[in-house]
Design goal:
Shape: globular
Number of domains: 2
Number of helices: 6
Low-confidence stretches: none
CATH topology of the largest domain: Nucleotidyltransferase, domain 5
Distance between the termini: 51 Å
Oligomer: single chain
Largest sheet: 5 strands, mixed
CATH superfamily of the largest domain: ATPase, nucleotide binding domain
Order of helices and strands: EEEHEHEHEEEHEEHH
CATH class of the largest domain: Alpha Beta
Structural class: alpha/beta
């Protein structure tokens, strides 16, 4: 079973092809503003290097957010077109799940993505990937309060976040991600949509005033 993994939720392109619990090829490139230009090129090059046809892919796992609004749309569009045109199975995971499952050796995992204006995207998972705090758009100060009751937690982030705790940068473990979610329920490509998590501007202002 060949699985294509795609994550463009940040300034990086993380992609890979996994077959039978082995990573055949992967891409980890910081493309920033060039993401829209080169993402499909880099993904296509994986097939060329492996000399396999895209129709050989049995399933796609695509990250649907949260993160960069533009980046998320790029990856989602590529995955949806791929799945629809080639009638390939597809499912989604969120970027916070991917960040957490790529790490180990802690009791709790706290992936964090800077959402600006004092907000972050975050979640809390235990070592079995049970959600202790659901993925959400949350004020950083509130997240800090929630972490006070935890011990032995690992913060995973590529952003400059002012928060206490042991931190590590995010390096996706594509094999672990795909192994964890390869049997997740497939969904219709037409209903695959971004999961931004972000509150409306009015909701943000209300929380800031509380």
């Amino acid at each position: 079973m060949k699985i294509l993994y795609i994550d463009t939720s940040s300034s990086f392109l993380y992609a890979g092809i996994v077959e039978d619990d082995k990573v055949l090829i992967e891409v980890n490139n910081k493309l920033e503003s060039e993401l829209s230009k080169y993402a499909i090129v880099k993904i296509s090059s994986m097939f060329t290097k492996l000399n396999i046809d895209p129709r050989d892919i049995d399933k796609i796992i695509v990250v649907d957010g949260p993160g960069s609004f533009t980046g998320i749309r790029i990856g989602m569009t590529i995955a949806k077109v791929f799945a629809y045109s080639l009638k390939t199975k597809i499912t989604t995971i969120n970027s916070l799940e991917a960040m957490a499952v790529s790490n180990d050796k802690a009791s709790y995992f706290v992936p964090i993505i800077d959402a600006r204006r004092g907000f972050v995207y975050s979640a809390i998972y235990d070592k079995d990937m049970k959600e202790i705090m659901l993925p959400q758009h949350i004020k950083l100060n509130i997240l800090k309060e929630k972490l006070l009751i935890l011990d032995d937690y690992l913060i995973i982030t590529n952003d400059d976040i002012e928060i206490d705790g042991i931190k590590t940068i995010y390096k996706p473990d594509i094999l672990r991600i795909v192994t964890k979610y390869k049997n997740k329920k497939n969904i219709n490509p037409h209903v695959v949509n971004p999961n931004y998590l972000k509150l409306t501007e009015a909701e943000e202002k209300q929380i800031c005033h509380d």
